[in-house]
Specification:
This protein has 144 residues and is mainly α. It contains five helices and three strands; from the N terminus they run βαααααββ. It has a three-stranded parallel β-sheet with strand order 1-2-3.
């Protein structure tokens, strides 16, 4: 069977953004001595901001300063991305090149607001050279 197209998710598949967010959460968790931050983060993977906040409150209580925590984590994330670019998952470049040689159309979908080429600045945007289509943005009201 000839593949008609391949569509990838952006976060966690093309870019290793989840690991970077975890690193940021762990830095803030260490700074403020927040226990079990890794376990809490793992529950939040693939959820939207509202669900993430609910999970964090379930672990740490409603008095947890979620907005400050998320804001500080976001600053660390964007500082890293500005300096280093988003880390590309191992094997992505080779897979995209291979699909290009086979003339298989490739797209990326993301529920991240501003996902795709209009997303966070990155020094690794060359992966988008291989894409024929992209879909994304904060229009997703319900995620995992």
């Amino acid at each position: 069977m000839k593949e008609k197209a391949v569509i990838f998710d952006m976060d966690g598949v093309i870019f290793d953004s989840e690991r970077l967010v975890l690193d940021c959460w762990e830095q803030i968790g260490t700074k403020y001595r927040i226990p079990d931050i890794r376990e809490t983060f793992i529950e939040c993977i693939g959820t939207n901001k509202t669900k993430t906040q609910e999970i964090v409150y379930a672990h740490y209580g409603k008095e947890f300063a979620y907005d400050e925590f998320a804001g500080e984590s976001s600053v660390l994330f964007h500082e890293y991305v500005e300096k280093n670019g988003l880390p590309v998952k191992k094997g992505v470049r080779e897979l995209l090149q291979y699909l290009s040689v086979l003339s298989v159309p490739v797209g990326v979908a993301s529920s991240t607001p501003g996902g795709g080429r209009g997303g966070p600045p990155t020094k690794n945007k060359e992966v988008f050279f291989f894409l024929n289509n992209e879909w994304g943005g904060g229009g997703c009201k319900k995620k995992k």
